[in-house]
């Protein structure tokens, strides 16, 4: 199946000379949830803004649903929904009117039943006649989502959807994303929260300095880059690592009470059993053993660090 | 054509007018009534007729134009400046609408509002002075063309302005001298020859003169010249707007 969004060699330079995007290639499959991770200024928002029509690209092409975003902007923008990062809303409009306005802008006939359903889904219905300036930050965020859903887009861009949102609302947002995906909507979200990408994404893209560093299935990424670490707690501290243990590349920690062993969890032989028998050969008594897997956050920090 | 989008923008802008009824309708009516009391009743009664028309009636078309220009420039500029200022412009830019549709929505609403206020002023004026309209068709043509042209001009200012100071520059600093020196309150043959020549460089002179001609058949310049001037200015504004959208000037990076 052809990707729903296809980005080829996309570049963007600003008048100041700053290169926000340096030749981005990316395919987004229909129905998936793609999380774009990257530090501030990495080019996430610029990329989304170009696809949605807010920023003009300097070079390269983007197609959405097989249509070119510049030549066939009517077709592409009709199926794209955008929830921007900033809480930009007209202060003096009511919730209902601003959502209906978005639907109209996208060329759809009024559909009060649909808007009612969207507002109810987002727990905004009882606020439908409230002016936007009287809403809390979390509610304003939900209004922005309601606006983007009002014309039933096939591709939804969520730019930092949970920035500054409390934990329970963040969970609600994740459920919403799940429901949308179940209805066939393709979702691209940018986030700072690694936990968020880990929780809901199918694939993860890491972007930094205007370049995509990698795009991988989340599970494959975790397995491929996921280093595991085993910490062995000793009953009596040692001053140095015995020579017999040198092939394992251990490090000594906790004033000689802990030995740290790093291994590849996806590898054929992890070396754990040989390490354990080597330990007893050396006469070291083991008090406790714990293992931990590197999180997406560690992977991310590592990748972005390399990019510097 | 994305008619739903045009309708939405137009309705949104008209809703804003309804929310600010006091400021948008009542205030210009009061201001104009004051002009008529001062210039029409108080001072006008002691003044000679101008080219066979009482002074109060003579200034009525000019006052309507003054209000129309201010309303259209103000509404046209604010309508597009405000979304730029708050950031909600993102929605307009990311919608499946063309430049023409955006302009029809915003400029159409600004012109409509200008025409509503202008008509109210005309009715108000008729309570103070005797008004006759000799060429109703030409009067409506000048009225509508001016409203559209200056709403479009306002729209351009709204896109150009980077802050509220620049936004108010035209309505507050540039339009009033042009209107006051454009023969709204006098016929330019009352001026010394030098200032008559200077006045001919003032575009508002042509507007006021043509508009007044459609009322009383008196004019400083030929009504045809007036009409061509308005049309010419409209074409200039349309060309600049087309350029703005083509290049994304101050709208898109």
From TrEMBL, chain A:
Residues 5-234 form the ABC transporter domain. PANTHER family: ABC TRANSPORTER ATP-BINDING PROTEIN. It comes from Shinella oryzae. It comes from the Bacteria. Keywords: ATP-binding, Nucleotide-binding, Transport. One of its GO terms (molecular function) is ATP binding. Pfam families: ABC_tran. The keyword Amino-acid biosynthesis does not apply. SMART domains: AAA. InterPro entries: AAA+_ATPase, ABC_transporter-like_ATP-bd, ABC_transporter-like_CS, ABC_transporter_ATP-binding, P-loop_NTPase. Belongs to the ABC transporter superfamily. The keyword Transmembrane helix does not apply. This is ABC transporter ATP-binding protein.
Automatic annotation (TrEMBL), chain B:
It comes from the Bacteria. It is found in: Cell inner membrane; Membrane. GO terms for cellular component: ATP-binding cassette (ABC) transporter complex. It is a multi-pass membrane protein. GO terms for molecular function: ABC-type transporter activity. Its main location: membrane. InterPro entries: ABC-2_transport_permease, ABC2_TM, ABC2_TM_bact-type, ABC_2_transport. Keywords: Cell membrane, Membrane, Transmembrane, Transmembrane helix, Transport. The chain crosses the membrane at residues 21-43, 55-82, 140-161, 167-188, 200-218, 224-245. The keyword Transport applies. The keyword Protein biosynthesis does not apply. Belongs to the ABC-2 integral membrane protein family. NCBIfam families: PRK15066.1. This is Transport permease protein. It comes from Shinella sumterensis. The lineage of its organism: Bacteria, Pseudomonadati, Pseudomonadota, Alphaproteobacteria, Hyphomicrobiales.
